[in-house]
Write a structure and sequence with these properties.
Structural class: mainly beta
Mean pLDDT: 96
Low-confidence stretches: none
Organism: Actinoplanes ianthinogenes
Distance between the termini: 16 Å
Shape: elongated
Order of helices and strands: EEEEEEEEHEEE
Protein name: DUF427 domain-containing protein
């Protein structure tokens, strides 16, 4: 389950964070040119001409026939955000209003269908 930027650099895909003209890429293992920022997390800053592609990846799904974004996973549960835009449906599904018009809730992973990654 992914939700964030990724960069392809030297044929590999890395989690990334755009930073003005540059992009920071992250690795769970030490590698040449990477700096350890905390145990198990290494960062390297790339210039725009150093990487092949940058994309935003988001995991989408359906639950009880309605569209959602997968935000997190904990054991056998998924944290979902409703993207259907209809408050009565969100209320019927028992979702909590996280922010104005933004509805989220936990769903059993076994009830979630059609999970896929969408790249922008």
């Amino acid at each position: 389950m992914r939700d964030g930027y990724v960069v392809t650099w030297q044929g590999q895909e890395y989690d990334a964070v755009p930073d003005a003209d540059r992009v920071r890429i992250y690795s769970p293992q030490p590698a040449e040119g990477f700096t350890e920022v905390k145990p198990g997390r290494y960062v390297r800053v790339l210039e725009p001409d150093e990487y092949e592609e940058i994309a935003y990846v988001r995991t989408l799904c359906t639950w009880r026939g309605e569209p959602f974004i997968v935000l997190a996973e904990a054991d056998t549960w998924l944290r979902l955000e409703y993207t259907g835009g209809r408050a009565p449906v969100a209320q019927r599904l028992g979702l909590e209003e996280f922010d104005y018009g933004v509805y989220q809730g936990w769903a059993p992973a076994a009830e979630v269908h059609d999970r896929y990654e969408h790249r922008v």
